[in-house]
Amino acid sequence: MGDVQHFAGPPDWLWYILFYFFLAGLSGGSYVLATLLRLRDAPGDEPMARIGYYIAFPPMLIAPLLLTLDLGQPMRFWHMLVNTTPGHLGVNFKYWTPMSVGIWALTVFAAITTVSFAAALVRDGKLRIPLVVRLDGRVLNVAGSLFGLFVAGYTGVLLSVSNQPVWSDTFALGGLFLASGLAGSAALMLLLARYRPEARPSAPMLSVSERLYSLLELALIVVFAVTLIVAGTQEIVFGLPWSLLWVVVLAGLVPGLYGLATERLSAGPAVAVRYSVVLPLLVLAGVLALRAAIIFSVQV
């Protein structure tokens, strides 16, 4: 029955796709968290919000490049956006395919992150283009957050609608990748706050959010495992050597879960601990390991 259900061969994705998924999660998650901080409208949140907008931009330069390289024919990337069929020249948008919707969402989100990145530079006195500040209002930030949520989570949905064992045996991948991306983004923003002292008043709120995203990620990992057990494919992704990557995934959840157990939803000394370099990097390693285990275990 499994061979009948999973009749297509593995896609043979390389490390390009791994880092594309990783960067998309961090970019989308950072933009969402930055916008939530700005919408909170607390006096001291703007510096941390700008950190989020700074983080969201570079991955949107690199991620499309990685996706293009993985196509094997990089020079034909624009065919995913433009229909070049004789007699049918125009926009190539197919709302019924997650790949086409994802490419367009990535394109729009990259444009929005560019505006918000430039506006952050203007607000920090590093650039003089006042127009981008007028564009970077709440409407753009909210729209960018919706696209950010999509970009961070759609990679998991893309796997779920495939015909591969594990990927198509669960409905949890979209939510799992989104929760993981948000937890990693919060950790990265807390890490970079070390170098922007005026952003530290926002650290307690961001730390609380990281704890909750870590708890949500753990819950979705459990759902992921249960759905695979029901399908009988759990050994593919949780067996050796992939179980070693899952150790890293769970280790990356420890800072957030420890903070939730000891500090609950209040900010305290645990926030200061997160100013260290090691713990945020451990969280980010867990984000990368999660995607590596899920992507590569199916292709062996």
- Quickly count the helices: 12
Order of helices and strands: HHHEEHHHHHHHHH
CATH superfamily: Formate dehydrogenase/DMSO reductase domain
The percentage helix is over 70%
Q: What's the total count of β strands?
A: 2
Q: Unreliable segments (pLDDT under 50, ≥5 consecutive)?
A: none
Major β-sheet, in short? Answer: 2 strands, antiparallel
Principal-axes shape call: flat
Structural class: mainly alpha
> How many domains comprise the coordinates?
1
The CATH architecture: Up-down Bundle
What is the mean predicted local confidence, pLDDT?
Answer: 90
CATH domain fold name: Formate dehydrogenase/DMSO reductase fold
CATH class: Mainly Alpha
Q: What integer value in Å does the Rg equal?
A: 20 Å
Gap from first CA to last CA: 20 Å
Proportion of beta-strand residues: under 5%
Q: Output the strand order for the largest sheet.
A: 1-2
Subcellular location: Cell membrane
Family: Belongs to the NrfD family.
Transmembrane segments: 13-39, 51-69, 101-122, 142-159, 171-192, 212-231, 243-261, 273-298
Membrane topology: Multi-pass membrane protein
